[in-house]
Every structure is written in C-alpha cells, then in structure tokens.
Amino acid sequence: MGKAHFHRALRMWDNAGFLDKSVFHRQFYSAETLGLALVAGSRVQADLPMLPRILQQLARQQDDSGGFAPDFSKDGKPAGMASAKTTSIVLLGLASTP
Length: 98
Description:
Helix content is 52%, strand content 6%. The protein contains five helices and three strands, in the order ααβααββα. It has helices at residues 2-10, 21-26, 31-43, 51-61, 84-95, and strands at 29-30, 71-72, 78-79. Strands 1-2-3 form a three-stranded antiparallel beta sheet. Helix 3 (31-43) packs across helix 4 and helix 3 packs parallel to helix 5 (84-95). The radius of gyration is 13 Å and the shape is globular.
C-alpha cells in the first residue's frame, strides 16, 4: 500500500519539483518536499527516477551557513532564508539516499 501511495505522489513531479497545491498558491516549490521524497523512497525501497535532479536542486538550496533555503522558483533559484526545519528534513533525506 505504501508503494502505491508513493508512486501516486511521484506523478506530481514536473521536472522542476513536486507540483502540489501549495505551489499553485505560493508560486514556489518546496525543498522540504524534495527531502521527504528521498526519505519516502528509501522507506518503501523504491527508485526515484528524478533523483539526479533532486540532488542537483538541493545542492543549489544550500547556503554558505550550511543550511538549506526552504523554497525555489520554477527555474531553480533558491528563495527564502535557510531554516532549521528545512535543513533537518533535507539532511534526513540525504542521509537516507544510497
């Protein structure tokens, strides 16, 4: 059951990020969603076809302090200041990635 939900969620990927309801309202993608996708993929032992793109975007999100900016635009430009919440979720995701 978990894999079915996971694969359904992957259909929200639009080659920039996960296009969920908040993206429509805020016009920004979430780095936290990228981190959570890494965690979920690891938990259900499923491949993420977009893994290289996720890792590339997360590298862009990291600032000089080591933290991760919470949002990014369709063209991949980070937005917002690094936060403990976003950084923690992203680091959990990266730690769960083989």
